[in-house]
Amino acid sequence: MKYRIPAVALSLVLALGGCRGAEVPAGAADNSETWKIGISFPTTDLIYRETMMELLKEYEKDHPEVDFIIRDGESSQRRQNRDVLDMLEEPVDGIILIPYTMEAPVPVIRYANEKNVPVLILDNEVIRSSTARTIGFVGADHEKMGEQAAELLVKSLEKRFPEETSWNVIYLTGVAESSGALDRDEGIRAVLDQNPRVQVIGTYNGEFTDEKAQSIMEDCLNVYPEIHGVICQNDLMAEGCVYALEAKGMAGSISVIGIDGQRSVAEKIAEGEIDGTVWQNPEMAVDAVKRLTDYLEGDLRSGNIYTEIVPLTPDNVQEYLDEGLAW
Questions:
Q1: DSSP bridge pairs for 256
Q2: Are strands 35-41 and 94-97 parallel, antiparallel or unpaired?
Q3: 38, 173, 210, 308: least CB-packed within 10 angstroms?
Q4: Is the peptide bond before 314 cis (omega within 30 degrees of 0)?
Q5: What is the pTM of this model?
Q6: CA 29 to CA 91: how far, in whole Å?
Q7: Among 228, 234, 172, which residue's Cα sits nearest to residue 195?
Q8: Given the DSSP bridges, would you call strands 167-173 and 229-232 parallel, antiparallel or unpaired?
Q9: How far apart are CA 206 and CA 245, in angstroms?
Q10: What's the pLDDT score for residue 25?
Q11: Rounded to whole angstroms, how far apart are CA atoms 238 and 214?
Q12: Concatenated DSSP letters for 130-172?
């Protein structure tokens, strides 16, 4: 598996989010040769999370200056909060948190503040709080990803069904309280609501899984007499929809759009079964480690790093497949 971070992949926006000022991290005073870093995943069931985990393990092998304690919340906010508390008792020098929901992690972040352990947020954001400070966020702009996915859907519908005065669309959402799902929803609706030809005839929670999405799509194909397209908040759900279409002998007959850029979906774009997705780079997990270690070594700036996103279509998907960028 090969990855490349394009030269324009990262843009640093300083002085955003909760600022820790000039506090010295708990582990900085002893000039530790190895930084012990806690990394909390909300789940590792998703392919994107699995890829992040693989990249982190590879990085740890090659960098003796870091020692990771990685925990899987198994899709439970309660368990994730317990994981973070356990890390703080370990203790760790810093924490990278991929929050399951936006609000529920605030108490454990506040506790980390009390112990003077810096917390960096990765991929999914938390609500802003004056009492729970983080050193910033590393990840993609999910609202923009939603906008780009919706734009891909409209272009695909225009190409597939140019004579139709309106298009019937199914919309599959993800984990309701996660910032990724909420922000992608904002972006998708901002585009689709502005197009009078798009009629969203059904919105369903696919829970970010292919199994749930396949079941929903099977039901939709039986209930709705005509469907022109489906847009999904992640690629796994887009694949689930394709499985349902394949079972009906309808693969490639309607517009299907996902978000994330996983390899299996990129391959289906090349084969004509999926019309597009929006790629994000799982290397953001490594970017987060670098940002946190910089902070622990004295770079006390607080801010957000937004990683590159790219719409993938039949026109450019082969390049991403050839270069190993579709994960």
A1: 230
A2: parallel
A3: 308
A4: no
A5: 0.88
A6: 14
A7: 228
A8: parallel
A9: 16
A10: 55
A11: 9
A12: SSS--SEEEE--HHHHHHHHHHHHHHHHHHH-TT-SSEEEEEE
What is the token pair recorded at 226?
């005509």
Q: Give the burial string for 280-289 (b: 16+ CB within 10 Å, else e).
A: bbbbbbbbbb
* pLDDT at position 26: 52
Q: CA-CA distance, 70 to 50, in Å (whole number)? A: 12
Within 8 A by CB and 6+ apart from 295, the residues are 25, 94, 118, 120, 135, 301
Tokens of 229: 């397209």
Token pair of 31 as six digits = 């000039």
Residue that has been written with the tokens 């004295």 in this structure? 298
pLDDT-flagged residues of the chain (< 70): 1-32
User: For the chain, first and last CA: distance in Å?
Assistant: 8
Which single residue is written with the structure tokens 């972006």?
Answer: 187
One-letter identity of residue 102: M
- Supply the pLDDT for residue 177: 84
Cα dihedral: 26, 28, 33, 39 (round 10) = 50
Strand 119-122 and strand 136-139: the pairing is parallel
Alpha carbons 12 and 14: distance in angstroms, whole number:
6
Pair 107, 257: CB distance under 8 Å: no
For residue 311, list its beta bridge partners: 278
Greatest distance between any 2 Cα atoms in the chain: 70
* The amino acid at 83: D
Q: What is the mean pLDDT of the chain?
A: 90
- Output the pLDDT for position 130: 79
Answer yes or no: are the C-beta atoms of 13 and 303 closer than 8 Å: yes
Contact (Cβ atoms closer than 8 angstroms) between residue 279 and residue 148: no
pLDDT of residue 301: 84
Q: What is the DSSP secondary structure assignment for residue 260, as one 8-state letter?
A: B
Strands 277-280 and 309-312, bridge-based pairing: antiparallel
**b/e string for 8-18 if b means 16 or more Cβ within 10 A?**
ebbeeeeeebb
